[in-house]
Design goal:
The chain contains 6 helices and no strands. The chain is mostly helical. It has one domain. Helix 5 packs antiparallel against helix 6. The radius of gyration is 26 Å and the shape is elongated. The termini are far apart.
Length: 162
């Protein structure tokens, strides 16, 4: 008899528990997700550092490369930067070139960032050296910031030349 009373009142007990305790479930799930993400990003950063060490980079070069990227991992752009940095290290890009490439990558906006990453990785996969990659990055960065050499073709009456 006691068990049947319990099962009849079970929906009421669950409803009250979810109303007053539902936020606890949300908070726990949110905390677990944030911590899992931090662990995952830390693993990527450790893999990047290990790759740079295996390539024989000096501690100063590694520090300079890591400073070129964002310091905190707060959004997907950071993960994108980490993946791009890892690719550069895998291909043995020298630290000064890596620093310039990552700086240009960080200043690129939206779709330009993706284009730059895909172009650089494709060039490195194709055997391009760091100087060739740097030339392309500078060209892409110039056009993305609006400082292209063809400024005379702007839609501005003052830009027409005779």
């Amino acid at each position: 008899m006691v068990m049947s009373d319990f099962f009849e009142s079970l929906p009421g007990i669950l409803t009250v528990s979810l109303i007053f305790g539902g936020w606890v479930i949300v908070a726990v799930v949110s905390s677990v997700a944030k911590n899992w993400r931090k662990v995952h990003e830390s693993e990527h950063l450790a893999a990047l550092k290990q790759s740079m060490i295996e390539r024989g980079m000096s501690p100063d070069d590694i520090e300079r490369v890591l400073r070129a990227g964002p310091g905190e991992f707060e959004d997907d752009a950071n993960n994108e930067t980490t993946q791009f940095s890892k690719k550069l290290a895998e291909h043995g890009v020298p630290a000064p070139a890596m620093e310039q490439i990552l700086s240009a990558f960080r200043t690129a906006k939206g779709n330009e960032k993706s284009t730059m990453a895909k172009t650089v990785v494709a060039m490195l996969d194709g055997g391009a050296d760091a100087q060739q990659v740097m030339a392309v990055v500078r060209a892409l960065n110039r056009t993305s910031t609006g400082h292209a050499d063809d400024a005379r073709y702007r839609d501005d009456p003052a830009s027409f030349r005779n």
